[in-house]
Design goal:
mainly beta; 15-stranded antiparallel sheet; AttH-like fold; globular
Amino acid sequence: MLSKLDESLVHQAPVPFRMASVTDHRFFDRYWFEALDPSGEIALITGLAFYKNMDMCDGFFSVQKNQKQYNLRLSRPLADNLDSSSGPLSVEIIEPFRNIRLRLDSNEHGMMADLEWNARFPAYEEDFHRTISGRRISTESTRYDQVGTWTGWIEVEGERYTVNNWFGVRDHSWGVRPGVGGFEPPSISGRSSLLFCWACFATDDYTCQFQLQEDGEGKRLYFDGQLDYPLDDDRPSVRAVDVTHDISFVPGTRIYDRLNYSLKLDNGDLLDIEAKPLFRAWAYSGTGYDGGFHDRLGLGGARGESMEYDIYDLSHVNDVLLDGKTHFPGHREQPASATVNGAPAIGHMPVMTAGPIARYKLT
């Protein structure tokens, strides 16, 4: 099981790099990327992950244009191949935390890309994630986020789009989490409701990200955030210490049409953030999340080598159609345009809910 990584002096467990140091079948190690055309014409989410205890690697490449979401899902056995690729999709770390090349080579579905990501701001490591489901730990993971810009091109349905300094956000996370490997033990007394707000945005001068989790009655469960200046700026980071929210949901849905945050920083500054959708909310089942592969095994499911392709109709703000029929979308995540203290901004700003949320009369 030795690989070239085992020649390094950076082992963290007494096993080769091919093996995970935990036995939980849900162990994952994942890249995630988003690219947003500020004009609102085209957007991309893509990702790639290893599931060492499931012996699987899978990835996805989803493009949104004209209120359609084009989804390519890929998987292969991991075996001893630790290259960050699955089928035509590959991720190359050219310079850690600085420069990445992402490619989708020619394939039968007519989607291709050759993109380069360059960091604008330092990577931010979120507070450690741990959640309890009943009497069982369901999540233990580390994640960092980083904002930069994309250049290159994307091709969909034979039409090539030039990507010129588009907003780009990425994250890298690893650990254990629900929804991986096709099997999740049932919870006896897990949370029945959740409001999860995540904002990662940038102005010309700084980037800021924060996450807030509350239960259905407004009790805070998790809060973390930070403001960072560009890589060549020597000003120190500023921690976020509190946030309030006012969210307007499209009637009869859990999709917002406007949101306002007031974010307090530990230097006393307040960021007044107003955001609205820039594209339709991503339907994450198209990426393989939430049981999105055809076999319904979800991310890291033991399915061997596969390539799946479909097109979602997102013309309705809430419903997702596949082949003209209503389709389960999985969770939804929202790209947004915003103003922050009056300055223009762009970012990834999902609001996700589960169960009843008293304040917003969601049942």
